[in-house]
Amino acid sequence: MVPTMGALHAGHRALIERAVAENDRVVVTIFVNPAQFGPREDFARYPRTLDADLGLLGDVGVHAAFVPSVEAMYPPGLVTRLDISGPLGERLEGASRPGHFNGVALVVTKLLVAGLPDRAYFGQKDAQQCAVVRRLARDLDTGVEIVVCPTVRDTDGLAISSRNLYLSPEERMRALAIPSGLAEAMAQFDAGERDSSALATTVRSCLENKGLDVDYVAVVKADTFSEVETAAPTNQIVLAARIGNTRLIDVVRLGVDTAPVGRGV
Ligand code: AMP
Hints:
Layout: E1 2-4, H1 10-22, E2 27-30, H2 50-59, E3 64-66, H3 70-73, H4 86-90, H5 93-96, H6 100-115, E4 119-123, H7 127-139, E5 145-149, H8 169-174, H9 177-190, H10 196-209, E6 213-220, E7 236-243, E8 246-253
Parallel strand pairs: 1-2, 2-3, 4-5
Antiparallel strand pairs: 6-7, 7-8
Helix pairs in contact: 6-7, 9-10
Bound molecules: adenosine monophosphate (AMP).
């Protein structure tokens, strides 16, 4: 199973192609999940491109698409909630988007129960979501193997996202501060810098120099999302920042990923 919110792009395609290569039968789910959007977020204007999405799924040989309505997923009278507690659910993305991961957890659990897949595929770009889903798959004894796939980037280094469609050409240029800031911090780490706040400051300065409004930059453990003072290989630099009305997130794995773009680009 490959859960998505549609508006499929090359990032989704990579997950789907890998799932098709590794499994006998693949179902892609397309559902813009209201439960994971806050009241002032972009649920209403989130891009919806179902015809093009279904065309892509046909091209890559997916066996089924599951495109439920909101009413089918959340019938009247539903009272069951899931709560992702502790730093994993409540820090960073969880702090900026209260209730977000509870909404993600509920929909992912319902999709896993509906499809009973052997494996489910998620993108590293949404790193905290991956950690939440890994944890819930284990906590709820689902037996589903969670496969995390590398972030797909445009040639200039920007992580591909459905929300990139919101950016004006000028904002799209300034957004390159994200991959270049991360690349700079990775280069510092490779040169021996282990102080997390120094690495975070490097990224933050890069973003602020281009007028991005930084929500957070942090160095975290991949599984718990607790912040570390001393950075080590496999720790992740995670960030969220706003450009105009668009909020973007990104992540690199220290000592694992190659830099998203050359330094100073
Ligand atoms: P979304 O439709 O944004 O909810 O994304 C559906 C799945 O695709 C999630 O597991 C995302 O992490 C993954 N995904 C989105 N963008 C990318 C990308 N650029 N590279 C890899 N995976 C991605």
